[in-house]
Amino acid sequence: MRVNLTDVISPAFYDMHHKIRAGEIGEALLKGGRGSGKSSMVSVEIILQLLAHPKCHAVAMRKIKGTLRTSVHAQMRWAVSALGLDAYFSYSVSPMQIVYKPTGQTIYFFGLDDPGKLKSIKVPFGYIGVLWFEELDQFTEDEVRSVEQSVFRGGDFTLSFKSFNPPVDAKHWVNTLEEKPGRYQHRSTYLE
Q: Please, are residues 107 and 89 in contact by the beta-carbon 8 Å criterion?
């Protein structure tokens, strides 16, 4: 089954997709309200990155573990299906993970209820190269830094996705993130 990406991601994200594919982005900040398509974009890109990097694994994070199943885990399942790859993936909720059957690459799901659990994260082969913080504004800046240091420990490349609804407080740390090389900032609404 052949799937056109134009059928699964919004045109608002085409430029970001091309930059990720070209290796120009190491960190993608996706700011947008509900229905803006940012989580769909991230979930599709995570699957594409696993397919492109056979030794790479991924981690999807939420602040509270109890929100994983109905948010990022469900979103990743949607992406697999939207890409027509259901036969190649298996799913479990205990432990919560999604496995690409041909290679054993895994998407792990963690809440940050206990940040210490991530310090000893180990994958059976390869490395963790993709990290997704869903609802970034719920994390502290120090928590994000600590998770990145625990998760990104070697490998051919790293790519972090940070999606969130911009907080009303203009001084909130996520609203003050500045441009830097390798960081791509994208703002979307349900209209685009």
A: no
User: How many other C-beta atoms can be found within 10 angstroms of the C-beta atom of residue 102?
Assistant: 10
Half-sphere exposure of 28 (CA within 13 A, CB side): 32
30 within 8 A of 162, measured Cβ to Cβ: yes
Tokens 């989580």, residue? 39
Q: Distance between CA atoms of 20 and 28, rounded to whole angstroms?
A: 9
Dist. CA 173–CA 175, nearest whole Å:
5
Query: Is the confidence at residue 160, as pLDDT, over 80?
Result: yes
Read off the pLDDT of each residue in 74-86 and give the average, rounded to a whole number.
Answer: 96
125, with CB counted inside 10 A (0-12, 13-18, 19+), is: exposed
